[in-house]
Protein backbone atom coordinates (compact mmCIF):
# COMPACT_ATOMS: atom_id res chain seq x y z
CA UNK A 1 0.00 0.00 0.00
CA UNK A 2 1.31 3.42 -0.90
CA UNK A 3 2.21 5.85 1.85
CA UNK A 4 0.19 9.02 1.71
CA UNK A 5 2.63 11.29 3.56
CA UNK A 6 5.24 11.27 0.74
CA UNK A 7 5.20 12.11 -2.96
CA UNK A 8 3.55 9.63 -5.30
CA UNK A 9 6.70 8.77 -7.29
CA UNK A 10 8.69 8.20 -4.10
CA UNK A 11 5.89 6.06 -2.63
CA UNK A 12 5.85 3.91 -5.80
CA UNK A 13 9.63 3.49 -5.56
CA UNK A 14 9.30 2.40 -1.92
CA UNK A 15 6.70 -0.23 -2.82
CA UNK A 16 8.93 -1.71 -5.53
CA UNK A 17 11.86 -1.76 -3.09
CA UNK A 18 9.67 -3.48 -0.49
CA UNK A 19 8.76 -6.25 -2.95
CA UNK A 20 12.43 -6.70 -3.88
CA UNK A 21 13.41 -6.81 -0.19
CA UNK A 22 10.74 -9.47 0.46
CA UNK A 23 12.19 -11.62 -2.33
CA UNK A 24 15.73 -11.14 -0.96
CA UNK A 25 14.60 -12.13 2.53
CA UNK A 26 13.07 -15.36 1.19
CA UNK A 27 16.28 -16.15 -0.68
CA UNK A 28 18.43 -15.28 2.35
CA UNK A 29 16.40 -17.73 4.46
CA UNK A 30 16.72 -20.34 1.68
CA UNK A 31 12.93 -20.49 1.39
CA UNK A 32 11.74 -22.04 -1.85
CA UNK A 33 9.07 -19.89 -3.49
CA UNK A 34 7.38 -19.01 -6.75
CA UNK A 35 5.70 -15.72 -7.56
CA UNK A 36 2.45 -16.81 -9.18
CA UNK A 37 1.24 -13.33 -10.04
CA UNK A 38 2.48 -9.79 -9.60
CA UNK A 39 0.06 -7.02 -10.51
CA UNK A 40 0.63 -3.29 -10.33
CA UNK A 41 -2.54 -1.43 -9.42
CA UNK A 42 -3.61 1.89 -10.94
CA UNK A 43 -2.44 3.76 -7.81
CA UNK A 44 1.04 2.19 -8.06
CA UNK A 45 0.64 -0.39 -5.30
CA UNK A 46 1.65 -3.96 -6.10
CA UNK A 47 -0.23 -7.18 -5.36
CA UNK A 48 2.03 -10.24 -5.21
CA UNK A 49 0.65 -13.79 -5.08
CA UNK A 50 3.26 -16.22 -3.79
CA UNK A 51 3.44 -19.92 -3.06
CA UNK A 52 6.27 -20.78 -0.73
CA UNK A 53 7.85 -23.38 1.50
CA UNK A 54 6.91 -23.30 5.20
CA UNK A 55 9.01 -24.46 8.16
CA UNK A 56 11.72 -26.04 5.97
CA UNK A 57 9.28 -28.83 5.13
CA UNK A 58 9.85 -30.76 1.90
CA UNK A 59 7.86 -29.13 -0.89
CA UNK A 60 7.46 -32.13 -3.20
CA UNK A 61 5.40 -31.10 -6.25
CA UNK A 62 3.89 -28.08 -4.48
CA UNK A 63 6.24 -25.62 -6.15
CA UNK A 64 6.46 -27.64 -9.35
CA UNK A 65 2.85 -27.05 -10.34
CA UNK A 66 2.31 -26.12 -13.95
CA UNK A 67 1.42 -22.49 -13.37
CA UNK A 68 2.54 -19.53 -15.40
CA UNK A 69 5.09 -17.84 -13.11
CA UNK A 70 6.31 -14.26 -13.10
CA UNK A 71 9.52 -13.64 -11.20
CA UNK A 72 10.47 -10.12 -12.20
CA UNK A 73 10.01 -7.12 -9.95
Q: Explain this structure to me?
A:
This protein has one helix and two strands; from the N terminus they run αββ. With 73 residues, the chain is α+β, with helices and mostly antiparallel strands. A two-stranded antiparallel ribbon has the order 1-2. The mean pLDDT is 79. The relative contact order is 0.20. The longest helix is centred in the first third of the chain and has 21 residues, at 8-28.
Looking at this protein, list some descriptive labels:
21% strand; 73 residues; elongated; two-stranded antiparallel sheet; 29% helix; single chain; alpha+beta; 1 helix
Kindly summarize this structure in a few lines.
The protein has one helix at residues 8-28; strands at residues 33-40, 46-52. It has 73 residues and is an alpha+beta fold. Strands 1-2 form a two-stranded antiparallel ribbon.
Amino acid sequence: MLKEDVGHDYAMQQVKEEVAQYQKSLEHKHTQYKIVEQTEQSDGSIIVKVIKQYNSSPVGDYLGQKIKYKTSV
